[in-house]
Every structure is written in structure tokens, then in C-alpha cells.
Write a structure and sequence with these properties.
A hairpin with a 6-residue loop joins strand 4 and strand 5. This protein has a five-stranded mixed sheet. The radius of gyration is 15 Å and the shape is elongated. The longest helix has 15 residues. By secondary structure, it is an alpha+beta fold. It has one domain: STM4215-like, CATH 3.30.2000. The chain contains three helices and five strands; from the N terminus they run ααβββαββ. The chain is 23% helix and 39% strand. Helix 2 runs antiparallel to helix 3.
Amino acid sequence: MYPPIFAAIVAHPPALALLDGDIVRVFAFGEAPENTARPYVTWQVITGSPENYLANRPDIDGYTLQVDVWADDGQAARDVAAAVRDAIEPHAYIVRWGGESRDPDTRAYRLSFDVSWFVHR
């Protein structure tokens, strides 16, 4: 029912190598647990809708996801973003490169992008 972004990332060895530790640091709902080691990735559904038909039930759901990469330095954020991009692109489309910024409280570097993903039911 939801985009298999976690499965795509853990199946891609370069992305997994950057995000694996005690746990794989990829988190839904746009939030990571407090004190999570960086780098890590958060993602959230921005929009979603079924592909409706007149004669049949939908067989595909379309989603737009926001993916955020968090790291201790800018180059690490870019490296993780590139690996996650490479993990996702065989399955979905990157539709927007967002901004690069720093969190004012934690000083973590953030790189953001959006993904359009069609999920077969």
C-alpha cells in the first residue's frame, strides 16, 4: 500500500553501506528517533491517490514522497543522497531536487528531494 522505499534502499549495497549500523537509518513519517547517529534518511508521503477507473477498482496507487538526507557535513549529505537516488531510480522518478540547508538547532546538514512512485496493489 505504501512505496517500498526502505526495501529499495536496503537492497542497494552502496546506500546500505552508508546507512547501516545497529539499525538501518531510514525512517518514515519524516522523523528519526532522538539521538540517531548521522547520516540518516527520513521520508514522508506528501500526496497520494489511487489510479481510479470507471469499470474496475484501482490497481495502482501514486505517491509523491519527500526524502531528506541528514548528515554531519555537506559532502556526506551529498554522498548519501546520491546513493539513495541510485537505489530509488530503478523503481521511481526523482521529480524535484530540493534545497540544501542546516538545522538551526542541531547544525545537521540536510539535502531534500521529491520522488514520484507508482505502487501496484
